[in-house]
Amino acid sequence: MTDGRHSVSLISPLAAAGRADEVVQRVSQAIQLGLFINGEQLPPETEFAAQLGVSAMTLREALATLRQQGLVETRRGRTGGTFVRRPLTPPVDVLRARLRAMSTSALRDLIDEQFAVAGAAAKLAAARASGTSVRRLRTLVGQLSEASALGPRIRADSRFHIEVAIASQSERLTRLEVGLQTQLAELLWLPPETEVPPATGEAAELLDPVVTAAEHAAIAEAIAAEDGDTARALAERHVERNLRRLTALRLAMAQYMPETRA
Description:
- The chain is mainly alpha-helical.
- 65% of the residues lie in helices and 3% in strands.
- The protein folds into two domains: 5-84, Arc Repressor Mutant, subunit A (Orthogonal Bundle); 92-254, Four Helix Bundle (Hemerythrin (Met), subunit A).
- The longest helix has 27 residues, at 228-254.
- The N and C termini lie far apart (46 Å).
């Protein structure tokens, strides 16, 4: 079991005046995406707060909320501490509400950034990835192919993109990718709202894990072959396809909920 130090290192620090609700959102998303292993022990409060860039009091308040949500538990005694409790399935209703609250312009900006980061990371990974990184990417391809539930699919998909960024050996790209995954990964796999017509075309289709895994496999093999141009092109095409569906899903929602801003 790990102590959470490596996991926390993947999460960008909050602003100095970060609020407890921001910590709750950041840590809960990290848990849902599998950045924290189920049962993993979080670092001591003082250290955890420093790594996240918030006060110990703010972190303590956030952990109390996370305990109420069932995402962490605190154990007493010599082997005690705060441990992750990852739910089997993501909160679909909460995720749909989050997507509805996003403006089309904000979503477009995220899509543009994801396109740029994923492509650059894949190209650099083809030049810098270690054998261990390539094996990890192939393992994650298999995990997505075999995942039979929404939660494991989201985690395998998200971890693949983060591992590509890690393989690029660029700390800045890795942090950007983690930030993007916490905002987009769960939304990408949202089931269509079949009870609210008209959900047609891409907006009516759930991502196919077999197709997505095949695209991941192609990216991984291009990285293994040290073919940076192909890796970049495949990564960009993959992101473009996935995020085109997300945009279609958001626009379908907009027909039944007027936007506050475009």
